[in-house]
Amino acid sequence: MAGLVPAIHALDAGAASLSVARMRGGWVYIMTNRPSGAVHGVTADIARRAYEHREGLCEGFAERYALTRLVWFEFHDQITAAIQRESNMKHWPRAWKVRLILATNPEWQDLYLDLNN
To answer: How many degrees, rounded to 5, is the angle at CA 96 between CA 4 and CA 55?
Structure first.
């Protein structure tokens, strides 16, 4: 469990809880309101989470800055891997995150509509 964010330790109430969490995958995502303005997160349900952002159902930073456009996402077979990846990204310079987006979404298009296709 070393190196994981504190929230994952709550899952360690029992071995069964942790193994269930590992069976489900997770998504790392980046939302923005404009090119180069972004926030990232982790979710088990990317379509639901992007919808929550779009509808202003996310309180705090994401709501205050109207981060409604999904510009990048990445799936991991284990939620713990997704949590670790997002945790690592928090320490990246903004330029690295921008390059990550540009590599797959150079126009900064909203990918939300692509989730159901």
So the answer is: 75
